[in-house]
Design goal:
Length: about 525
């Protein structure tokens, strides 16, 4: 029963049940996207067919020799619990009993055991899928075996320690399997924080963050995850590889950057050395409204180019703002709407700014906001966003039960092309889905451009829901890839996995793909590491 939350509704093992969606919100949604056909609840584990393990006795015995028999799991429930990640398609496949299941789950305890597992897998020619929190939304942990006869999910949950801390240099080494909240707890005992808070924070792991070049909500202050990585320890089929000895280096190309973002295709990150920061003395979140997307992006660009971004800077477009207000409902929201209309905001865009003690220019930032005509609502809105920021994933299962197709996608582009890209993606999604609700926000801004994050809600096609989303996703990806050259990146932080692999060459070129293939051939000559991901 231990993995139950992965198979069914739970977002976390301890009480992360699906959240309800208020009836007023359901009615609003029906008006916007049309008739919904509720689907059957998730089938019990026993109703999902799990084929017998193809591991074989010899391999199973050798794996048990590497990690102990108690840590090689061939039980169907355990295997089903690591059958893919958390994209809408993953959830649909699990609901319909069509998930691809690994032949075994292997749980090593440390770097040495990970290395021994890889040696066994090379010897028996078994594919290996590194498995952190399993929150990939791009097929990164799909149990694909490629040409191999069997595949294991290499679950890193037992690499859950703070390996070492150097408070003078402010560097902590964490095991790859440490989850977001545990990282903060372990570092907090020493007065430090990582400050990496993606929406998947509660489940995702240090190894997963590094392997996918994740970006957290406070990336404007703390940086993207890759900015925090000062070194890595990687177990590869060719042996151990350690990278990162000094704060900066000119010793050839940055191979650490090759390991970070390699999505388990080169080896297994077992330990990650990370820059840490003192826990902030206070945090302050505030909410504002700006009139229209163009003014909003102009404002965020000005802040980014003047060094005045708050540590969390998040601008919602009119569509996302409208949904936030509609889902909240209630007297307070009605009063807020009236206030915004009295202030002549015809297309309100919500702006959340959070100061975590890194940006020291709050007063200057507020002065720019005042000058741009932004309406300041204050701490209640900012704090309410902060408290509710992990609620989204919990509502997904409920929305799916109601018959909603619900998924997200993301990209990034230069400021000069950002609005064009947003429009191209909106048009592509509308063309594929009819009358969807499309929400978009900027949550990561840079001097030269910003990310765009879309959430899509549509009435689910009961006949072929998988195909419905594949069509929409393909249309959006084709819009990003552009007719002659990319309008943006195929992924700003979700990574490539299986879903974006067809678009990688368009972004990094044929030579770029060959360089990656050559690197893989050097460390993984028999191709056991994460088949089908990144390079397709
Ligand atoms: C609701 C939701 C919200 C999300 N929000 C964000 C967000 O705000 N920001 C963001 O960046 N992402 C977000 N994601 C995407 C996802 O959480 C990230 O990609 C995260 O970094 C994955 O971490 P994980 O531990 O779950 O990795 P997994 O999903 O287990 O693995 C991801 C990939 O990394 C590989 N991998 C995992 N661990 C290792 C390792 N130790 N060594 C080598 N390879 C490894 C896997 O094989 C796979 O290819 C979200 C996902 C969900 C479902």
């Amino acid at each position: 029963m231990v993995m139950d939350h992965r198979i069914r509704h739970g977002w976390t093992p301890d009480g992360g049940a699906a959240a309800s969606v208020p009836p007023s919100a359901v009615n609003w949604l029906r008006e916007r996207i049309g008739t919904l056909t509720p689907s059957a609840a998730v089938p019990p584990g026993s109703a999902i067919a799990v084929p017998p393990s193809a591991l074989g006795e010899a391999a199973s015995g050798d794996l048990a020799g590497a990690v102990g028999a108690a840590h090689v799991l061939e039980d169907p429930r355990e295997r089903l619990g690591r059958a893919g990640g958390l994209s809408y398609l993953d959830l649909l496949r699990r609901r319909s009993g069509k998930a691809t299941v690994p032949d075994a789950v292997v749980l090593p305890a440390d770097s040495g055991e990970v290395q021994r597992v890889l040696e066994v897998c090379v010897a028996h020619d078994i594919a290996v899928v590194p498995f952190g929190g399993g929150t990939s939304v791009v097929g990164g942990v799909a149990a694909l075996r490629g040409p191999k006869h069997a595949v294991i999910a290499l679950d890193l949950a037992r690499l859950d320690r703070l390996v070492s801390i150097d408070p003078v240099s402010r560097i902590a080494v964490l095991g790859a399997g440490v989850r977001g909240p545990d990282a903060e707890r372990l570092l907090g005992e020493h007065g430090f924080t990582l400050g990496h808070v993606p929406q998947s924070f509660e489940r995702a792991t240090i190894g997963g963050f590094a392997a996918t070049r994740s970006a957290g909500q406070a990336s404007s202050g703390y940086g993207r995850f890759e900015d925090m990585v000062t070194g890595v320890r990687l177990a590869t089929p060719r042996g151990q590889w350690r990278l990162g000895v000094a704060p900066a280096s000119a010793a050839g190309p940055d191979l650490r950057a090759l390991a970070v973002g390699s999505e388990g295709t080169l080896g297994v990150l077992t330990e990650v050395a990370l820059r840490v920061r003192p826990v902030p003395e206070s945090r302050r979140y505030e909410g504002f409204f700006v009139d229209g997307w163009d003014r909003g992006t102009e404002l965020v660009r000005t802040l980014a180019q003047s060094g005045l971004l708050a540590d969390v800077t998040r601008l919602s477009d009119p569509g996302e703002t409208e949904v936030s207000l509609a889902l909240n409902g209630g007297l307070k929201t009605r009063l807020l709407r009236r206030y915004l209309s009295a202030r002549h905001l015809s297309e309100p865009c919500m702006l959340i700014l959070g100061w975590e003690g890194l940006s020291r220019h709050r007063k200057e930032t507020l002065a720019v906001l005042r000058k741009s005509g932004a309406v300041r609502i204050g701490r209640s809105l900012g704090e309410s966003w902060r408290h509710g920021r992990f609620a989204g994933p919990r509502q997904r299962d409920t929305l799916m039960d109601l018959g909603v197709c619900v998924e997200t996608l993301e990209t990034a582009a230069r400021w000069s092309g950002l609005t064009r890209l947003r429009e191209a993606i909106r048009a592509a999604l509308t063309g594929a889905l009819g009358t969807p609700v499309i929400m978009c926000h900027i949550s990561h801004a840079y001097e030269t451009g910003a990310s765009l994050y879309f959430t899509v809600l549509a009435a689910r096609d009961g006949a072929d829901p998988v195909r419905q989303w594949q069509r929409a996703k393909h249309a959006a990806s084709a819009a990003i890839a552009g007719a002659d050259r990319p309008l943006g990146t195929i992924s700003h932080h979700h990574a490539v996995g299986v879903d974006h692999a067809p678009y990688l060459e368009g972004e990094i070129g044929r030579v770029g793909v060959e360089v990656l293939r050559a690197a893989k051939a050097a460390v993984d000559p028999t191709g056991i590491m994460n088949p089908g991901k990144l390079l397709g």
